[in-house]
User: Fold this.
Amino acid sequence: MEKKVIFSGIQPSGKLTLGNYIGAVANWVKLQDEYDCYYCVVDLHAMTQYQVPKDLRRQTLEAMAVYLACGLDPEKNTLFIQSHVPAHAEAAWLMSTMTYFGELSRMTQFKDKSSRQSENINAGLFTYPVLMACDILLYQADLVPVGSDQKQHVEITRDIAERFNNRYSETFKIPEVYIPKVGARIMSLQEPTKKMSKSDENENAIIYLLDPPEVIKKKFKRAVTDSIGKVQLSDDQPGIKNLISIYSVCRNMTPEEVVEKYKNEGYGVFKDAVADAVIEVLKPVQDRFHELMNNKAYLEEVYKAGAEKAERTARKTLRKMYKKVGFIPR
Assistant:
């Protein structure tokens, strides 16, 4: 049987967080035997904010190294850098002519980001969802693993694909959202009602993938909890609920099993346990990451081979699109 196709990507705009790892990359590793997976470093998307060129180059390589360090096998997955496949940008122009201004202006992420970067509300920030839609549609993806806050992007992708199919005949698969049941949304350690984000100005709110053990310990000790003093699953205790979620994923337990284990312990003991679980999970990733960053030739081999494969698939879809809208073939 032909495997279903999965597509996803992460931006090279700074250090990856524990949220990125638990909510995205760690789950991707579990999918690589069952699905035909395309994962890219979305450097084109990163350009909606000003990037220092040398930092962007370094961060792009680091993101590729993280993919590999987390266990993504280049023999089983197509790993590539978005800008190495020109079909993404070409398709995005064509699909932007089929996406309505009103649809884009309603996107929550545009409202959020434009409020945070009021000095740089650029056209790319506004049309970002069109490029994201093309990332997915070019590979005829069946599933898109995203956090629950990204569902709106998959919904607009579906709308754009259906509009094209209705106008020009069946061309794209209509993708579905794939959301893991546990740990898909890791929250800030300082404001547990907000998602953990690498753009957070408070360093204590974020566990970075490459944080050393002593830093991880310190950040969990400072994690915001409450005055109830009981380890339990309650919406009135978002801080503790977040720590339970993190621990359950790291130790491969259900949240209920975590509560049962620590229900008679204080918050200090539980925070230490969560920190230890995270340190243990991240150590092999960190060790492998540093090895890979010292082997740039291997990283280049991986992303070049990935781009060649991705280009073949994406170009095939783009040719269909061009033919259907009436462009004369080269």
The chain has a mean pLDDT of 92.
